[in-house]
Task: inverse folding
């Protein structure tokens, strides 16, 4: 029995020696790899705003009642009021949109509203229909050309825009309003996003 115990003990010692040898052998084939470095995030900003609002340009007998102003952190032009008296009258405003940030921008959407008309007298429905059907309200680039989604406004660039309201002159005598008509919804929205 002692031979059997010595044999088992010898086998256990042999197994322990083999495991220890494998551990040493495995340790001999290890390698440590390291990554080390630094990074810097440069100063950057996102700032697109309105600038350089010019005085009204009028044609015909159009008048400016209230001059617009740039407000709300330079992202809103508001408070303008004008009067159109005669077919062919128009008013227009030039202003610029500028990218003062460090990222290039793309126009993701443009929405120029359709003017609404509200008549004030006995013939208000006919008046408002006739006036609104002869209005043209546009927002374009000042040098000409449509403003379209996808247009680029690179960092540091400025583009001049033209907002124009026209009371078209292709009106018959029967279509002239018999009472005053208030024109509302003279709004437009430009949405810029970071260029890809």
Result:
């Amino acid at each position: 029995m002692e031979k059997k115990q010595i044999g088992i003990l010898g086998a256990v010692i042999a197994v322990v020696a083999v495991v220890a040898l494998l551990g040493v052998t495995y340790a001999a084939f290890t390698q440590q790899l390291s990554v080390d470095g630094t990074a810097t995030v440069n100063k950057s900003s996102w700032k697109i705003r309105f600038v350089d609002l010019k005085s009204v340009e009028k044609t015909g007998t159009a008048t400016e009642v209230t001059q617009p102003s740039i407000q709300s952190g330079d992202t809103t032009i508001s408070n303008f009021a004008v009067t159109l008296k005669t077919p062919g009258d128009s008013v227009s405003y030039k202003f610029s949109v500028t990218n003062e940030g460090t990222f290039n921008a793309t126009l993701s959407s443009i929405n120029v509203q359709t003017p609404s008309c509200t008549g004030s007298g006995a013939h208000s429905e006919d008046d408002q229909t006739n006036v609104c059907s002869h209005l043209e309200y546009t927002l374009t680039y000042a040098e000409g050309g449509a403003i379209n989604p996808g247009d680029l406004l690179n960092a540091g660039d400025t583009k001049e825009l033209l907002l124009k309201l026209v009371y078209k002159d292709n009106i018959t005598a029967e279509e002239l309003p018999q009472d005053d008509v208030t024109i509302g919804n003279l709004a437009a929205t430009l949405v810029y996003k970071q260029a890809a």
About this structure: DSSP finds two helices and 14 strands in the chain. The chain has two domains: 1-34, 48-194. The radius of gyration is 37 Å. The first strand starts at residue 48 and ends at 51.
